[in-house]
UniProtKB/TrEMBL annotation, chain A:
Pathway: Protein modification; protein neddylation. Residues 28-144 form the THIF-type NAD/FAD binding fold domain. This is NEDD8-activating enzyme E1 regulatory subunit. Residues 1-18 have a biased composition (Polar residues). It comes from the Eukaryota. The keyword Amino-acid biosynthesis does not apply. It comes from Lentinula boryana. Residues 1-23 are annotated as: Disordered. Keywords: Ubl conjugation pathway. Regulatory subunit of the dimeric UBA3-ULA1 E1 enzyme.
From TrEMBL, chain B:
Pathway: Protein modification; protein sumoylation. Residues 14-446 form the THIF-type NAD/FAD binding fold domain. Residues 446-457 have a biased composition (Polar residues). This is Ubiquitin-activating enzyme E1-like. Residues 446-471, 538-573, 657-736 are annotated as: Disordered. The keyword Nucleotide-binding applies. Residues 695-705 have a biased composition (Basic and acidic residues). Residues 342-413 form the Ubiquitin-activating enzyme SCCH domain. The active site is at C181. Belongs to the ubiquitin-activating E1 family.
Amino acid sequence: MNDSQPIETATTSIQMSSGAPDAKTRRYDRQLRLWAASGQAALESARILVIPATATTTSILKNLVLPGLGHFTLMDDKVVTGADAGNNFFLDGFKSIGKFRAQEVVNGLMEMNDGVEGVADVRNIREALEIDKGWLKTFDIVVAHNVDSVILDDLAALLWPDTHLVVVNSAGFLADFSIHYREHQVIESHVETSPSLRIDQAFPALLEYAMSLPLDTMDITDHAHIPYPVILVRALEEWRREREQVSGPSSGKGVPRTTAERKVFKERIRAMMRKFDEENFEEAEAQAFKCWTPTVIPSEVRELFNLHPSSASSSTTFSGLVSGLSQFSQNNPASPQYPSGLLPLTPSLPDMKSSTEEYVKLQKLFRAQSEKEKQVFKEYLSRAQVDVNDATIDQFLKNSHAIKVLKGREWKEINPGAKELLAGKLSTHTKEAATHLALAAIRKLRAKSVISSLEYVSSPNDTAMTDILDKDKLKDLLTAEAKSFLPPAVELPEAEWLVASGEVARAPSADLPTTAAFLGGLVAQEVIKMITKQYIPISAGNAASSTNDQLGICVVDLVETWTGIL
Amino acid sequence: MSTAVGRTKHAEAILGSELHTRLSFTKVLVVGAGGIGCELLKTLVLTGFTQITLLDLDTIDLSNLNRQFLFRTKDVKKPKSITAARAASSFNPNVKISPIFGNIKDEEYDIDWFKGFGVVLNALDNLDARRHVNRMCMAAEVPLVESGTAGYLGQVQPLVKDATECFDCIPKPTPKSFPVCTIRSTPSQPIHCIVWSKSYLMGQLFGRDEDAGETSELDEAENNGENVEEIANLRKEAQSFSRVRAAIRSYTPNSTSTADQDNDPAKLAFQKIFSSDIQNLLNMGDMWKHREPPVPLDYNQIISGTFILDRQGSNKAKEESNRVNGASSLNGTGNKKTAEKVVMKDQRKLTLKENLVLFNTSVQSLSMRLSTSQVQTIEFDKDDEDTLDFVTAASNLRSAAYGIEGKSKWEVKEMAGNIIPAIATTNAIIAGLIVLQALNLLRASPSTRPSSSEPVNATTAAPSSSSTVASPASADYSLLRNVHIQLKPSVPLSSVTCSSPNPNCGVCRDVYTLVRCDRTQTTLRDVVQGVLGWTSGQSQNREGAIENGQSQNGNRNENENGSNDDDDDGSERKEISVYEDKRILVDPDWDDNLDRTLDSLNVGRGKFISIVDEEGDWETVQVVIGELPASHPSTASPYILPSPLPKLVKRKKIKPLVPSVPSTPPPRLSLKRSLPTDADDGDVMIIDGHNGNGRTRDGDGEGQRALKKPRLGAYDNQRDAKTTTPTMDLTSPGKRKRLEEDGLVLMDGPGEVDEFEEDVIVIDDD
């Protein structure tokens, strides 16, 4: 699958060959404007497995079925109870009671979008783990909600690393979730940082143009329309030449560094004005920091070069592109003065005060240079025999300053997490860590069958639940479990633990519709980010960086309404 | 109840039985049955709310189905409210959902109606309606949960009069605006041409007759110092639409005679707009001294494929014209019949000829609709293919004439229709958050039923509030949160405690009161002086007229701090102005309207009469005009004053007020719209949930920041939105309002045209 394509071709490609946009495009109009057809195509070819059919997983599925997920299988061996019927919108009310939960939910979900394939599987996940290992691995993503610890461990070990696992836990108003993948590449990260204009390392044509303008004699109207990058390049070059005369040729590439130097530099720009109100010069003064903000390769991108070194043969298109970029950053003949340390120039310019004419002139300079550098980049690709189409290259270069390669963690690393790490988290992220520990503890208890009697599935009356285990006793059990996750000397934070364990003990597995709705949105959103490879999902950090103690767990507290990343 | 055993077990276990029981006694109003509304309705029903009124004015469109999950393909074109109510009711027969297919701004949805609800939940997509509901809730003192989404971003904000700020406490970012002349004669960007087609040309050709010669906008531009000669020309241009309008309204298709072809509305319109009007503009030589002049388009040459845009001396223009004209040779092959059938692909940029053909077909279909049906006017609607085609074609033709890059229909739809990307996930999150905040509101507010002595169960999880029993005396709003969903992967949710009301807010700081009356019998004087306690002889139960401002009613002398500040004694007869919305009815030097009846002043049911203290000492009094109760004896006074009379509240002077200049902008409005200054910086920081580093900013920076994290409304999403001062001159409120609704505000002067700022929300960076 292509990582991406430009919106124009992308959005046309899924249309009928003629006439008004087809029903599908119209149906998905509002989301295509967010992730374009490339994202939509990825979504439509994705296959996911969801376990089991709770209110929360149903909400997650609802939000994937609506935008047009390809296929889902919902696995659950239980039958619908009255509590389910009142809690899950996609059951057919009382009529569903006594029937298989998975089948009833699938029926309800499928009504929303006939473009989606949905299958109910009424086996227990344990059974599938024993006899259907290969089949489980055919999914792109598996989502598990409030599944006990032992099953999760087995499932996670089986799926790692090819099928992504999403683990969701909730109790009352508290929840956490995590996504497990080894590495996730995002080209279209949709971040808001814009690529550098390279004011400090102007390309030859730009420098030449900036120096060629007869500033003192040109038409006054034209003078007021010189775009600010041109003004900055000119001012900086003049500043450099003056310095060179004073301090010798070696100083030719410097920039104003001290506060005093910068102040003088801004005054120099101001002095270039021929009328007091030339807004383009005012803008240049305001943007003067671009002169002394060095154009560098963002550290995250630099780190990627270690992950995909240019010498290594490239196994995938993505690593081929990254190693091409790495080579480019070492040698870019299209920029003879500054041959290394740059990413390919992007042709797009920000808005600026200028006339259309001047703006287009500048745009042409940037386009021409960016085209040259693209050729250099393509040359590196072809030498490494990376087979990739032009649209992908354009998309990659456009986003090269913001490409992300994320690191995930394996499930066993965070269930519940290394003792020392957790102890550290308890002091730095007390509330998040307490919530995580409480949810991990209940998962363990669930595996020990201590709380199975609390699940609202046993009988229609459920009178037994409070008798068997009262809240306080459950709290004590939770505390004991949580302590076993920590180094011996470490105490649980009293207030935060009271809150977290209290909430979990109060509602160990009650699925509140508001929490389910919230989680349904949040988790589905992250799943869509993973599938479309657009935007940045939660992660444990940058894949190339070794120093990171993030667990990559998103903690949700709807009592006080906050989320945090552990 | 016939509920199956265990049905509400989950919710009861978590909410506690006291709160859960209260849910079924709480009447909820949901305004909007769209993306958020569908999710909200589901979550409300599941949580245990059973009395829900659902209002929406819209019908279902195919593009709703990717997120509005209560609707199916078979429901397209049906009312959203009714369809959603039916779908959600089937879930639980014990729930009563009353759908209303109507506009929340209609007069029947008045203060009394709002007072009938325990909580109001906004699920709206446009700023205008959101502000309306906010005002009604502030007036009716009903708690409101506000919300909005745009793509992956969303926001939820609980609003309670006097306890938290209201929706209007923080001025909303003003939508992108352009000087009149930029739109009407010197466009330089595609958006200028799109705005021109949609907001100006659409109205001139297919709008109401009285708009055709409408000049107030131009008067205003002239007052603002825009080019006089240019405006005179525009005036002439606007008045000469009559022939085209007539042709449109008498259009008959299928006529083949040459006479009829001469009367082809499309061709007539084209000749006028793209040929003679542009020719006229070119005659104003001064204008084009420093600008690239436009090129008049030639209808026949474009059709025959021989038209060449000749723009000497400009590389850029040549490049552009090549692009626009580039494919015209492709069309040269087809005969006229097939050329009429342009194959539309939304995302492809059209050639000049294709645009012309699209212009023709769209003008013809729109003309058909006007000439053959009862429809009098057609307004732009992004989902109305004909109007979208028209705006696409007209703006691209204009762009071609001015050497501006063309836009595809897909792009025009987004730019003209203020389309906001929308997905199920964000709406689901927001709906969950809305209900959470509604639960927090219920927990905080006094119970309407005798409450048990047990603390509400769910709060036990929060140590800060676990001991707080919601008692009628002390409502505890500490759990309310103003929540944003953001794109930061590290902090998906930003949640901050709610701020106090902005002391300068022109909505929630006002004093609201209700006068029930027979509008044909009640004069403005009856209402104003009655409410203020300035009773004159003929009025009811006050003791005598108060000539020297000394009230005899103890209540009138109270002010909030109980201070002895004589100057600000609220009972004094102050110089006042009276407004109905933005319309001035009375000012200190002009009180002719006082003795006219409300009816004759066209002040209808549910309207607000604003009594503004010219000196700015009191908060404005908003008098809501209600209906007399059916039982009111016909012989009694034609109006019922509130009892007790509203307490005048001394305005807290936090910072200097905008000086009130007689006759120019109404003080009430200027107060409402005043931009927060540095003094308010802290407040704004909290609202935005940004890092509170409290940098000093000037007014402009403030607005810019507000734009960075805008309230999410229909037109907050303008791609190139930039800051303008929200203090508007409202000399032409009608026009202005209409344009505002279009997401456009005409600027006060030309000075701001060249300001560029960053996009508000990056939807995608194609």
